[in-house]
């Protein structure tokens, strides 16, 4: 299973919390116990795909009550974990942190998707590379669980010519043409612009997608009217649940937001333990 490939990463996270040993929970080793993971919040659960195989790898019996992407409510039981009490309490915080963080991202993404599609049924809500170092693979997964698009996973996925690339090279059209000539046909070339004029120039130079960066919705509308259907149009920059509807109304194809990773609130989850 692909999930098993990520056990090593989770072991590294556990090492951060438990190395060289849990000096408290070690005194409960040998006692059999059950941990019941519950929600004290409302949202979308995410992360079970990875945490369940990890807990089984550690020797626990796991009963799953929810699936990634399901709505959870206060009091809902998400997991039951049975095994050695000392080991259970050692892995408790990692389990809760992992699920809380990913569920918060999935929930924030889902909120943005619902708001945006209430006025633009085909728009995509996408993530960015504003992720936690070492945790991107999981955060990108949570975006997908919430109904969003992960966007580029890393710098090798697609070409994105940003403002600093253009500033250093000095010529927008020449840079786009050079990149198009030297880049595999399998990769899209997107160009970041902040004015109507540069959007038109980027389109005429052969861009596959245009990122409208930090532009007001009123400034985006004329670009959409001119280029909709000719090139992928993406709005980005300071977009949150509070203004996503305004951007969705412009008719862009994609709305990308760092908010869903760097500002998403972790869901409040807890584990109740009992001796068996």
Poorly predicted spans: none
Largest sheet: 6 strands, parallel
Q: Tally the structural domains.
A: 2
Helix content: 40-55%
CATH fold-level name of the largest domain = TIM Barrel
SSE-based structural type: alpha/beta
Radius of gyration: 22 Å
Strand content: 15-25%
How many beta-strand segments? 12
Q: Give me the CATH architecture of the largest domain, please.
A: Alpha-Beta Barrel
End-to-end Cα distance, whole Å, is: 31 Å
CATH superfamily of the largest domain: Aldolase class I
Kindly report the average pLDDT value.
96
| Bulk shape | elongated
Q: Count every helix, treating DSSP H or I runs of 4 or more residues as helices.
A: 10
Compressed to H and E, one letter per element, the order equals HEEHEEEHEHEHHEHEHEHEHE
Order of neighbouring strands in the sheet with most strands: 6-11-10-9-8-7
CATH class of the largest domain: Alpha Beta
Note down, in words, how this protein is organized.
The protein is α/β, with parallel strands linked by helices. The chain has 2 domains: 116 residues, Quinolinate phosphoribosyl transferase, N-terminal domain (Aldehyde Oxidoreductase, domain 3), CATH 3.90.1170; 150 residues, TIM Barrel (Alpha-Beta Barrel), CATH 3.20.20.70. The strands form 3 sheets. A 6-stranded parallel beta sheet has the order 6-11-10-9-8-7. A 4-stranded antiparallel beta sheet has the order 3-5-1-12, with helices on one face. The chain has a two-stranded antiparallel sheet with strand order 2-4. α9 links the parallel β10 and β11. α1 packs across α3. The longest helix is centred in the middle third of the chain and has 33 residues. The mean pLDDT is 96.
């Amino acid at each position: 299973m692909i999930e098993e490939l990520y056990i090593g990463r989770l072991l590294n996270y556990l090492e951060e919390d438990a190395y060289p040993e849990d000096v408290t929970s070690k005194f409960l080793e040998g006692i059999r116990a059950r941990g019941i993971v519950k929600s004290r919040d409302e949202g979308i659960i995410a992360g079970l795909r990875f945490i369940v195989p990890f807990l089984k790898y550690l020797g626990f019996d796991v009963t799953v009550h929810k699936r990634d992407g399901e709505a959870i409510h206060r009091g809902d039981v998400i997991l039951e974990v049975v095994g050695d009490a000392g080991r259970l309490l050692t892995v408790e915080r990692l389990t809760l942190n992992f699920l809380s963080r990913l569920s918060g991202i999935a929930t924030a993404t889902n909120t943005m998707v619902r708001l945006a599609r209430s006025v633009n049924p085909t728009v995509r809500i996408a993530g960015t590379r504003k992720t936690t170092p070492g945790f991107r693979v999981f955060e990108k997964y949570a975006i997908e669980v919430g109904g969003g698009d992960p966007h580029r996973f890393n710098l090798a996925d697609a070409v994105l010519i940003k403002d600093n690339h253009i500033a250093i090279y000095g010529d927008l059209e020449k840079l786009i043409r050079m990149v198009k000539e030297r880049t595999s046909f399998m990769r899209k070339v997107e160009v970041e612009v902040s004015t109507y004029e540069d959007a038109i120039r980027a389109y005429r130079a052969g861009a596959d997608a245009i990122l409208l960066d930090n532009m007001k919705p009123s400034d985006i509308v004329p670009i959409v009217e001119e280029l909709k259907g000719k090139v992928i149009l993406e709005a980005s920059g300071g977009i949150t649940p509070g203004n996503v509807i305004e951007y969705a109304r412009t008719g862009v194809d994609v709305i990308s937001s760092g908010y869903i990773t760097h500002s998403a609130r972790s869901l409040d989850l807890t584990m109740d333990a009992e001796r068996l």
